[in-house]
Specification:
Belongs to the ATP phosphoribosyltransferase family. Long subfamily. This protein is α/β, with parallel strands linked by helices and 282 residues long. It has helices at 13-22, 53-59, 69-75, 117-126, 142-145, 160-164, 192-209, 222-228, 257-267, and strands at residues 2-7, 35-38, 43-48, 64-68, 79-84, 90-96, 111-114, 132-135, 151-156, 168-177, 179-184, 210-218, 236-239, 245-253, 270-276. Helix content is 28%, strand content 33%. The protein starts with a strand and ends in a 6-residue tail after the last strand.
């Protein structure tokens, strides 16, 4: 069986299990379950701490895993990304009290507090900056107030918690992270079971990003309509009973669907419908 690591808790856990369910895999029914076997798909899912997943995958004990890019890089494990999953997005940045520093070039001799010691140490080393890094498991915002560090490095979403702590974001982002499928470095994706797993997840990603659009339009407007809805290969076009009219079906990006519907209506298209796509193979 294919052995796959899945986050057992945290912000990645729910979305990861939801994506796997959409891809047709059995998932655990209770949060206390540590292993779920899906005999129909010949897969075993192991629910592990997100920070440990890269280490298990790198050891070869598990074939692939789902974790965050930040957790993969921070672990230093011998594993690599093979498919970004478009959820769990975050930005990792430095922050400090106003006037302390403008960016990493000013960090010389300072101490930086973070929960991601591996990422920060590598970032500083890559830039030739001589600064100390102290590891904290959480609530790094208080490190400056308590005198543990002059700088912090942490995940920043809106920046509200930092501002509430009297801090400001400085410098360019250290890292932009998201959930990703990982595998032991060099293992590749030639294994048929791994390739099938990736195709299923890619199908979910496409299904989430596109909708199916159907509409009727006059034949003389067809070329302009097709320019708005080219589809992935080309749209499906069928003649209607009413002479001079055709029916068109094509996949369109979900985020652009409303604008495309407006443009088609202005062009004279009618009976414009969109439907969700639950799964696909391209």
């Amino acid at each position: 069986m294919l052995r796959i690591a899945v986050p057992n808790k945290g912000s990645l856990s729910g979305p990861a299990s939801a994506m796997l369910h959409e891809a047709g895999y059995r998932q655990r029914k209770e949060s206390k379950e540590l292993v779920t076997v899906d005999p129909d798909n010949e897969v075993e899912f192991f629910y592990l701490r997100p920070k440990d997943i890269a280490i298990y995958v790198a050891s070869g004990k598990l074939d692939i895993g789902i974790t965050g890019r930040d957790l993969l890089l921070d672990s230093g494990a011998n594993a690599e990304e093979i498919l970004p999953l478009n959820f769990g997005r975050s930005t990792f940045r430095y922050a400090t009290k106003p006037g302390t520093a403008k960016g990493p070039e000013d960090f010389g001799g300072m101490t930086i507090a973070t929960s991601y010691e591996g990422i920060v140490a590598k970032h500083l080393a890559d830039q030739g900056i001589d600064a100390s890094v102290v590891h904290l498991d959480g609530a790094v915002e208080t490190a400056i107030e308590l005198g543990v560090a002059q700088i912090i490095a942490d995940v920043v979403e809106t920046g509200t918690s930092l501002r509430n702590a009297g801090l400001e974001v400085i410098g360019e982002p250290i890292l932009k992270s998201e959930a990703t499928v990982i595998r032991r470095t060099g293992a590749g994706t030639d294994d048929p079971k791994v390739a099938q797993f990736l195709r299923r997840l890619q199908g979910v990603l496409v299904a989430r990003s596109y909708v199916m659009m159907d509409y009727d339009c006059r034949a003389e407007h067809l070329e302009r309509a097709v320019a708005l809805t080219p589809g992935l290969e080309s749209p499906t076009i069928s003649p209607l009973h009413n002479e001079g009219w055709v029916a068109v079906r094509a996949m369109v990006p979900a985020k652009e669907a409303q604008r495309i519907m407006d443009d088609l209506y202005e062009l004279g298209a009618r009976a414009i419908l969109t439907t969700s796509i639950h799964a696909c193979r391209l």
